[in-house]
């Protein structure tokens, strides 16, 4: 299997195993599906962390309003009493006014926290350092894990306007958000290898060769985004080693400059009478004084 190290710009994303016979169009779709799936898992994890602290999302017409404004406009959160967490709740006001403040009890909060921790580990970028490839199945398993935890805490489901529920049902609206800039539409994805665009009408083997044990770096980019930066000739580890060697050499030169020029005179090899003493057998003569 060919091992792909997938990057977005200069940032590592995940490893992916495939074969040289796969078409670039199909490969691009598989890679961007995993990439977007990881982003979805990260978004859901972020929202679940807020859910565990401040309860469900307020209706759109109540977002960001103060209690006085809500009372003045006679607005009511109709979903607050329908979506009560298992085991009850305690009030914890949301400082940004997005959620209703009905925080789940600690035991249920731990269920959500544990699911978030495990899901993040399943799609972590650190897996690239451990040579563990990522698959669509793993990404889906992470989403299922998060969905199961939310169902345990909120068996009656979350309000339909809660972003977590919309993410699970694939009805999320990311327009106008930073997340929308990160997502890559499958129809607008491009793959780059060694500074060259991988054309959709080719197969992977036509570009990297027929060796199935090849490992290459592939970069994801959006259509018309331009060529991503090429990989540096020297790795970061090699660069650190070279800098360390240069520093040590510099310190050695400084030490030599600080030494006295005539320090060598204390050495045995610099004694001009050493040869004469050796000829007469007086090299290692020791004297013992007695009374």
3D structure, described in words:
There is one protein chain. The protein has 291 residues and is of the alpha+beta class. The chain contains nine helices and seven strands, in the order E-E-H-H-E-E-H-H-H-H-E-E-H-E-H-H. It has helices spanning 24-54, 67-72, 106-122, 136-153, 163-168, 178-182, 204-208, 236-258, 274-279; strands spanning 2-8, 11-18, 89-91, 102-104, 189-193, 196-197, 215-222. A hairpin with a 2-residue loop joins strand 5 (189-193) and strand 6. Helix 1 (24-54) runs antiparallel to helix 3 (106-122). The longest helix is centred in the first third of the chain and has 31 residues, at 24-54.
Number of helices, counting only DSSP H or I runs of 4 residues or more: 9
**Which strand-content bin applies to the residues?**
5-15%
Q: Average pLDDT across residues?
A: 88
State the total count of DSSP E strands.
7
Which blocks of ≥5 consecutive residues have pLDDT under 50? Answer: none
Identify the overall geometry. Answer: elongated
């Amino acid at each position: 299997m060919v091992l792909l190290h997938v990057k977005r710009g200069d940032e590592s994303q995940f490893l992916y195993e495939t074969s040289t016979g796969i078409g670039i169009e199909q490969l691009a779709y598989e890679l961007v599906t995993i990439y977007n799936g990881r982003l979805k898992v990260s978004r859901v994890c972020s929202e679940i962390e807020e859910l565990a602290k401040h309860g469900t999302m307020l209706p759109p017409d109540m977002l960001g309003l103060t209690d006085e404004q809500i009372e003045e406009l006679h607005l009511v959160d109709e979903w607050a009493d329908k979506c009560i967490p298992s085991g009850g709740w305690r009030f914890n006001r949301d400082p940004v006014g997005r959620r209703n403040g009905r925080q789940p009890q600690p035991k249920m909060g731990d269920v959500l926290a544990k699911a978030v921790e495990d899901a993040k580990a399943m799609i972590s970028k650190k897996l690239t350092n451990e040579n563990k490839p990522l698959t669509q199945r793993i990404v889906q398993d992470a989403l299922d894990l998060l969905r199961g935890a939310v169902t345990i805490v909120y068996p009656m489901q979350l309000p339909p306007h809660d972003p977590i529920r919309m993410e699970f049902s694939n009805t999320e609206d990311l327009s106008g958000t930073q997340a929308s800039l990160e997502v890559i539409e499958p129809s607008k994805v491009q793959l780059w290898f060694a500074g060259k665009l991988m054309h959709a009408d080719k197969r992977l083997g036509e570009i990297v060769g027929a060796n199935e044990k090849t490992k290459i770096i592939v970069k994801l980019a959006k259509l018309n985004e331009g060529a991503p930066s090429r990989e540096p000739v020297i790795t970061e580890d090699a660069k650190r080693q070279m800098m360390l060697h240069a520093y040590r050499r510099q310190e050695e030169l400084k030490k030599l400059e600080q030494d006295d020029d005539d320090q060598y005179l204390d050495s045995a090899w610099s004694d001009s009478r050493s040869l004469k003493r050796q000829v007469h057998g007086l090299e290692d003569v020791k004297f013992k004084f007695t009374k």
